[in-house]
Amino acid sequence: MSQRDLATEHLGHLARGGLLALAGSAVAAGAGLALALAVSHGLPADAAGLFFTTTAAFSLLAVGCLLGVDSGLARFALRLEAEGRSRELGRLMRVAMAPALATATVIGVVAALAAAHLAPDGLSPTVLRLLALALPCAVAAELHLAATRSFGQVRPTVAVDRLLRAGTQPVVVLVVLATGGVGAALVGWASVYLVSTALAVLALRRALASRPRPDTGGGSPDPAPTRGLARSFWSFTAPRGVAGLAQVSVQKADILLVALLLGPAPAAVYVVATRFVAIGQLANQAVHQVLQPRLTALLVAGDRRALDQVFTTATTWGLLLVWPFYLAVGAAAPTYLGLFGGATSSYAAGTSVVVLMALAMMVAVATGPLDTLLLMAGRSGASLAIALVAMAVDLVLCVVLLPVLGLVGAAVAWACAVLVRSGLATIQVARTTGTVLPLATLTRAALVPVVAVGLPVATWTWSGGRSPTTWLLVTVLAGVPYVLALHRWRHRLGLDLLADALRHRRPAAAPTTPTPTPTLPPSRSTEETPCPSAP
Q1: Does Lipid metabolism show up as a keyword for this record (predicted)?
Q2: Residue 318 within a domain
Q3: Would you say residue 532 lies in a domain?
Q4: What pLDDT, in 10s, does the model give residues 228-255?
Q5: With contact defined as beta carbons under 8 Å apart, do 140 and 101 qualify?
Q6: d(Cα 13, Cα 55) in Å, to the nearest integer?
Q7: What ranges in 406-511 are assigned the alpha helix state H?
């Protein structure tokens, strides 16, 4: 198979799987916005701030308990199959999940026992105990879904997490708020994880049963690779666990700092003003999750040229997908905030926050899946260092700027952290794999949404437009020349590959195991820790 054909095949898997993941992320994004609307309209600002800060703390703990297992599985599962060690997949799952589940259980029990001392003002210790007991369920659900994604299967994640869990939570919260307060809303929000956990476990069992079974020839497995599996897995994954926590801290810790330094009401304003960031991140994450096993396969095959083509095309697709959304929101920030309470409400104070966040996220999206590529190349240590630097920038600037600039200070800190992380990751990926950002291609791609979507929406806002209905209409109308421009330059933007992939459908659930002999690109650092039998 030629290099172009190899890249095209992987882009086909990415297009088909990414489309499914994107559909699920669209539902989850809408559900996230619905949750913010329900809480901001159903609770006073102080109580809404308490809800958002509590769920942010819950998310931080859940990511910390994952210990980076999601990235570890994405790197190791297909490699075991490529090395003819499929029978070790069950052991890999046990080695990966047991420490994470134990960590979540211990933290949940400790938090439940200390609830009387940890519960903030306005929140019953009983509510905190119930949230603590739901923590292991949330972690278990994500672990099992991450395991299915490691084989390239995105349908379980879409069905269980994006549709069921994310789609049900705002409905439950809305129903509960009709008769209860913030405590009942939090319990309802957390209770959904009980159902998603059971379904995620079933999904993984089906995924493992569908994998090719190796012909053992009646012999017993070689114990040496099996004994080294745990050591190899955790030497790669442990740094990723810390890095993942640091990355989520950049997204969530500022909410907690705003609540601590400014109060729960400003925290509610900050969450509402930044809610759109998560919507765009979900769309980008949908592509990256499907991309992980594709990058693993290309790295195992050692095909750098195909790797560069897949990275460039995936980055371009991500930009064309997400930039119109960030431009539409950032260029109409007052109208977006008006959705949560009108122009005279306390939420209207977040206009500058929205603009800063939109600009920072556009830069982050344009740099592509750098961290994903870095991880799949085995550089979890470098990923950890970058994440820790970005977290330090965010926390230090938050503490310094919040008392001076208020919510804008938190947005500046967050934007600086995102830019630092993107810049350092760009340098590290270039050194590790030789992959560099395709600036000419990205510049050409960026001009299309800026001219077609950004300028019309900004012109409407500057002319005094504030109606949400008109905003939606202007954005939809701007989409017409945008789509025409994409069709006009489809070959230069790699969209012809997307159309071909969707036209000639193949099974998108699970990629085939890479067949070439594993020849990983030589690492420029001793941080790389491949599977025991990899070179």
Answers
A1: no
A2: yes
A3: no
A4: 888 889 988 888 788 888 878 877 888 9
A5: yes
A6: 34
A7: 407-433, 439-449, 455-462, 468-488, 495-503
